[in-house]
Prior knowledge:
alpha/beta; 5-stranded mixed sheet
Amino acid sequence: MFALSSDERQRRITIFNQRRSSEASELTDILMRQWPCRAPVITERRDWVFDISRLEKESAPAFQTWFQNKELREYVQDIQRTLDEVYRSAPMQLSTYAFASNNDQTASVSNQHLLPQLFTVRDAPCVPSPATSLKDSLQGHQGFSIDSLVSSRAASGKCNTPSLDDLQALLIELRSNTFLQSGDPAAIQLQYADDLERSFQSLKKEIGAADNRYESSKSQMLDVVRGWYISCGERLQAAREIIQASLSPRSLAEKTIFSAGLWPSLTPRSILGVLGLVAYDRLPGPWRRALNSYARTLLTYQHACRLLNYLRKNSFEEFTKELESTVIEAEVDEEEYSIRLLIQIDGDFLARSIQIDFTKEMASPSSRNNTVLQLNMGEGKTSVIAPLVAASLSDGKALVRVVVLKPLAPSMFQLLVHRLGGLANRRVFYMPFSRTPQLKIEQVEQVQNLFTECVNKRGILLVQPEHILSFKLMGLDRKFNPRVLDSSESLVANRLLDSQRWLDKNSRDILDESDEILHVKYQLVYTIGQQQPLDGSPDRWSIAQQILTLVRKHAEEVHRLHPGRIEVQDDNSGRYPRVRILQDEAGVELVRLIAEDVAGGALDQCSFNLFQPNLRSLALDYITTLDLTSQDIRPLEDHCKSSAIWSIILILRGLLAHGILQFVLKEKRWRVDYGLDPSRTMLAVPYRAKDVPSLRAEFNRLIQGCMRMRKLGHGHSVMFFAPPEVDHSIRTVCSLGSDGDIHTKHILLWAMLESCTEVVHRISQWAQQGIDHSNRERAKIQFNASPDAYAGILQSTWMQKEARTLDEMFASPQLSTMAGQSHSLKEHPTILERYLKWAPSTSIDARVQEEQEREVILEVETERQVERPPKAIPATHRVHEDLRTLVHTGVFNSDSSAFTPLFKPLTGSHFEDNGWASQHLYCTHDFSITIQSVHSTSSDYLRPIHWVISAAQTTGTIYIVLSPHEVNELLPDIRRSNKVHLHHYSPRVTKAMKSFEDLALHCIPPLPLSWTGPDLGVITRLNLWAGQLYLQDQRVYRYLCNFLGLYSWQPSEEDLIQPDGFIKPEHRRASLISDCAFERSPVHYLKQLLSSRRKGMDFFSTHMGKVLRGRLLIDEDFHSA
């Protein structure tokens, strides 16, 4: 085989690279010379170093794209040239032209010929009125009746008119069923029936007014409508020609301008646009009336087009509704009337008389107060009335706000732009607002300027409820937030409050879907101040998880006992089964089985084994039965209330007795009513629909889709689907057996009763919110009059407790949702009257109390805008001189501010009890202080223990915990010192981890051979503070129990032991008397300390976890992993 030398190989590579570079340039030139072309071709065939076929194939798509871009550019340029040749018809600034005549006399044009100026120099013509309405024409035509056309089709079976007999029967049944499912007298139900009766009587009159005396054929009707349509078109053409003739050029100069293409355009749209916002004020009165007449003629012609189209398509229902609309004659307020005409022309609709009446009532309420009006579905509340009212109110004096729900905001914005942004020439403003942006004074001024601009330009401001509430709360938040310290923040707060006062004075609000916006469940909450853990945390969620484990254990058994009353879907894949309670019997059985397991010690956090038999039985009743008197539960409270287990008992009572567990498993469905939103939080959040999490709502009804079907009985039909629990509820309400047929009337009756039940259960919320609103309004008036004097009152009316304690929610059986409000209600007689009329009676049974707890406490849907706490500022490190002295000389000054008892930094808690004190265990000031804050204590930011120094004193060895900074600064001195030793320490948090309790690991300087380590008193306190989870042996365990006052032996019936294992001083014996200095149980506070150390991680399966929940440790617990 022939081998090349390295020089020869390099020479050939160089020659090849040169050839490749040369051919690349040559091929590029060949390709570029062919441009422009769709696909280049390389015709020269020779021995290229490139693959020519591949090059042609891969370059073709690029050339194809470039060629198409070239053609597109040329096409656009052609269009632009064509457009440039077309004369502009839009208004433009024109210079004055002068033409010299043959006799040297100059003819000039004095005015710029813009369309608005033409109306000031030309006389208004007499415009013919619109054609008579088709309905009036038909009424006088022999043999025709619109009503007969519809009724005849109903008789033929093509249209199903509801039977009045069925409606009458439904009303009778509603009145006869005068008790809600809760058993309370249904005052609201009777009111509901009375209102429905009035609506029914109106329906009877409407149906009875139909005139069936005439019959007509479609062909005859079509001829009449077509003739009327032609008449309307002729009148429109005549009116347009008259107006155009009045505005056309007349003089030679004007005709010259017209020939030059500079005369204003006289299209119908440009003419009617003068009635819009910009030019209306300069329009003479006669021209206003002439153009209004022209607009009515055009509107009548559009009306005729729609009628003819409906009739041709056999859309008789739409034809009849359209026929009810008529063009309203001119009104006194010409400007408002003109805008109304323009909106209808732009939207190609004709407002019916009832819609016009609603518009007038909303714009100027006869009551002179806030007004709520109701129309049937499909009557044009959103598409017709809202734009008309908004245009009517935007008079340059008031800020008109259209308030719409978040899901409807995009469609409402498009609707308003379409309705008001055309001929009416109204601008639609949109200003979303939330707590997220940190506004400065400049941004606040911009917001206020936007409000002012909207008023001056007669615009419409589209907002969402949370925008209004958020802006209102922002000013209060900035005013009363404790972090507001500097003058600039105060200036922003005051300016926001000023803007809110301006809004209160100048705003007119139009609420679309007001029933939903004003629903008592809708609230916006601003969190303020320091974050605090929920009462009972972390037991509140860990116990719930364990209860759900017991649900999984017993669900199949309950399903066997009560088939059809509970749904269990378990595919044995390892995931949690889907469990739904369908009927209350199954829920009661499930609660009973779970409670028995809890009493038997199934929960990690608590055990009832230490309870005496009578207290154990009472505890079981307390967590499962709601109706217990205070006298019944007093022995249990006396025994448990001072211990940590009391909060656990209350959590269990809430889950089981108050029905929270049954509510979750029965009323709420996973991924429909609630689920996860991982992008925001791993906690469950409310869902708005299937797999659609609510954007902000955070939260331990019957969707009647047929309401949107506006042609039921006229082509549309509805089929009802219901889950088993709803089916059971309907049968119960309507007294139907399991095999009885369910008809529409049964579903309607059930829906009505559910609506009444909803109102009753929400009445407490309604009353509370009414009281809050009244108090806040009164405080606002006082604050506006004297801000300094009434600032505190305003703050107290707005700031409320964010969470209730477990005792407030679950402890007292007599508490209701309005407890403590009787005095407040008396101050508001109007609210009190309605509350007493519709609220449940004071003797609330278990189910009603359960429902109130569900709906009021658990299901209040709040839009919560959370403000995370600001980042803490770390404290500045400092090595105290007395600590240096100790290292150098071994002299310890116990009175120095450099040293503090180890447990003292945990201020504000039970750790200040003297039982924690030790004369031999301290920490430095630098170790105890971690952040700069006047509100938070170091318990919020606990520093881990890693370094301890020991120093021999006459009273014994002292141990001082140091910060890492101090160790780093003093390490050279410690190495040279013979007075102190530096010990490495770490708490034992896993069973396999070796113990550091002898403090003999990695000591500086080395320890003497006589070192024995700290005594049990010191090391026990050190371990507890550091968060140690595992103990060395039984000796350490028994000392720990003696130190804390906990039992460490198998108890007998004579032993009086608290539920958490604590023994009160009067019940102690043996070494407990001398070893324990605690008079109250420290268990609850140790749980808090360990929870803080573990950052919420579960520790109840560890040694300390078992000790703190009252469990005994046996020898097997100390075996190594």
